Amino acid sequence: xxxxxxxxxxxxxxxxxxxxxxxxxxxxxxxxxxxxxxxxxxxxxxxxxxxxxxxxxxxxxxxxxxxxxxxxxxxxxxxxxxxxxxxxxxxxxxxxxxxxxxxxxxxxxxxxxxxxxxxxxxxxxxxxxxxxxxxxxxxxxxxxxxxxxxxxxxxxxxxxxxxxxxxxxxxxxxxxxxxxxxxxxxxxxxxxxxxxxxxxxxxxxxxxxxxxxxxxxxxxxxxxxxxxxxxxxxxxxxxxxxxxxxxxxxxxxxxxxxxxxxxxxxxxxxxxxxxxxxxxxxxxxxxxxxxxxxxxxxxxxxxxxxxxxxxxxxxxxxxxxxxxxxxx
Amino acid sequence: xxxxxxxxxxxxxxxxxxxxxxxxxxxxxxxxxxxxxxxxxxxxxxxxxxxxxxxxxxxxxxxxxxxxxxxxxxxxxxxxxxxxxxxxxxxxxxxxxxxxxxxxxxxxxxxxxxxxxxxxxxxxxxxxxxxxxxxxxxxxxxxxxxxxxxxxxxxxxxxxxxxxxxxxxxxxxxxxxxxxxxxxxxxxxxxxxxxxxxxxxxxxxxxxxxxxxxxxxxxxxxxxxxxxxxxxxxxxxxxxxxxxxxxxxxxxxxxxxxxxxxxxxxxxxxxxxxxxxxxxxxx
Lengths: 328, 283
Known about the structure:
By secondary structure, chain A is an all-alpha fold. Chain A contains twelve helices and two strands.
């Protein structure tokens, strides 16, 4: 363990409070303020969103606001249910598609790829995360949505759509602009995050463990499934939750393809909206205090949900790191 | 007996081969989407790369010619000012976490919150800045856009600065302390000097992160059809331009949106690959 910083602080003359030099105190103070600024930003975001949203919460009531689907700027009745459901459903689709793909990629990079291939493939996948959201939106609107409507949606409607129970989910107009398309694009966007976390935690498994498993005759898959995964599942789940948090807050890509309709449908191929896309679309046009306050209220709800989800992800990753004895 | 065990072997091998093939296929899927995106961007965007793009301003409705001069300049300005505000705060906070208060209670809280802010929805930051700056000032402005971007810069820089400073071996700090240097001198002349390339790389990474950010600019910097360097006015920028033009009805708007998309993507990917190269652990 490194503790020189601590020792330095305890050294007489170097930085003990009594004889600490002016420069030290000033520098220490300024950097402390900067660090505290990070906490301040978080606090300010929550306070400002709350004050901005108060008129809406007072008028409709917080839980009423969450459970009302009506969104009518003319009669000034606002409820956040439809965007909330849209956010949850599109993120859920993203996770359902993104999780197995991310796991596959992490497995490929850690266990299968020859050493010379690991780096380029890993970098290429991570570049998917570097591409800005708006670019996914452009591509989604002009390229992916038409392609999806022509080639993928009919196939899904004709196969999964015929099944009992889940059949009604796979219905809708052949536009390609839908909650489902948004979910697919979100999946592509979160795959790099989930797979790189999984890759990192898989690589922390000691080689001896892998080798002993291979030594008793395990196949590669058995090593991954019975040795690597059980040891790293906290971290891997943390990565998935991180991806979920990312997906829920994603704005531009979703705004382009989700259709921005304040409607609730069981069918996933119908247009819908999400919290982020509703704010992006309507905020500048919102006239009237109540309209703006309702949008800010949606923002507050989104911020709280993603905060909880991301904090959970962080806690799991910290636990994973603590188990290995890393000190982050 | 013998047959049964052969069966188990075959089954285990089959499962193994099937799953590993699936894993290779998922990797191909990921790479396929990356290539598809890049291919479309080049195909749609490259043909509009000409001098007009750099010399003309964005066209109004019905204008046939036009470029992206105002949007490019606006984006550079917003990104530049955003980094100038955010990076110093981030470096200082990172310094506190790595040097002055490594084990302080507040540092644990800051690290945790910082990691959460790193992935916080950027649209909410736009709403926040709208409330603290746009409403009091009474209009949309370049300044508020830059502040919104700086809030995204800070967590990225805090994280990389702390990580990079922690990589500096303690023996160097001890050597400087043994010579009688006060801690601020150790931090600036020894630790920061040793970690400077890493810290700069973190700032580059932050630039790459905000260069394409759209959501926080939608209701802060807004957009502007005309060229301006005045940060008190609404300011044109590439991401919001792409959003407006892509949603607009004109073909030349769409073309410009594609050209802008290609421009942003090339910039961001170049910065990203550059930072990877710089951060590559030396062996």
